[in-house]
Structures are given as structure tokens and as C-alpha cells.
Amino acid sequence: MSSEIPQEEQEQRVTYSSSLLFGKPPLEAMEVLKVRQAQLRAINGELAEWFTAYGRLRLHYVDELKKLLSRGQDLFVNENNPKLHNKKIDSLGLVSPMWNSVLKIAADEAALFDQSTRKMGKDIIAPLKLFNRHNDSNLVEMDDLCTLAD
């Protein structure tokens, strides 16, 4: 996957930014930038909040799946329940390989969800939150530039 922006999209971006700034007096251009930065902060904040809630939900799913997996691993080997296990006969018989496959699928899914959720936190949520923290000071600088533009 190339990191280059397609020519058509690049032209749209230039047109968009040009329509925002060029041909406007300096004070008005600074106001447009200030409004746009406030919009970006709000959008990033909402996205960070949404992804955080989504990540919490996924981690809760992983926790519940791990509990279920633990229960499934002990289900037919726990000698405390003679209906499900005894020493004379394998309670699952020919179904045992299938049951082990189901447990492996659940374990793999839990690991995948856990890993991908943590990666989402590192690669998406943290940068969004960090962007908002770093750009608070830029708003003060923009106020100073607006004063200069007067």
C-alpha cells in the first residue's frame, strides 16, 4: 500500500485549503484557521472517546471469552462432576478433537482481539489524545497571530 496521495485527492486538498485561505484578508484567514483547528480538536476528541469506548468493549469481550475458555478447558476433566468425567471412559469420545479445536479457536480469537485492541490504543487512540494536548498551546499562538493581523 503506497503512502502517496493520489493526484486527484491532492488537487481536492489544495482546492479546499485554497478556498479557506487565499483571497481572504489576514485577519479573516486567521479566524478561519482558528475555527478549523477548534473543529479538528472537537473531531479528534470525539474520535478518541469513541475508540476508547470501543476498545473497552473489546477488552471486556476478551475477559469474558477467557473466562469461558477457562471453564471449557476444565469442563470435561474436572473429577468433581461424575456425570461429565470418570476414570473408566473418556466422556467426549470421538468429539474430543473437535472440542479441542473449538477451545483453540476461542483462545486464538481472544489473543487476536487482545492484541489488536492494544495496537488500536497505541496507534489510534494515543495519537488522537496526544494531538489535542499538543495543540492547546497552538490556539494561544493563533490568538497572538490574530492580534498581529489586526
What does this structure look like?
With 150 residues, the protein is mainly alpha-helical. The chain has one domain. Helix 2 runs antiparallel to helix 3. It is rod-shaped and about 90 Å long. The two termini are 46 Å apart. 1% of the residues are buried. The mean pLDDT is 79.
Mean pLDDT: 79
What characterizes the major β-sheet? none
| Structural class estimated from helices and strands | mainly alpha
What order do the SSEs take from the amino end to the carboxyl end, as H and E?
HHH
Number of alpha- plus pi-helical segments: 3
- N- and C-termini, Cα separation: 46 Å
Contiguous runs where pLDDT drops below 50 for at least 5 residues: none
Radius of gyration: 28 Å
- Give the domain tally: 1
The number of distinct β-strands equals 0
Kindly state the percentage of residues in helix. over 70%
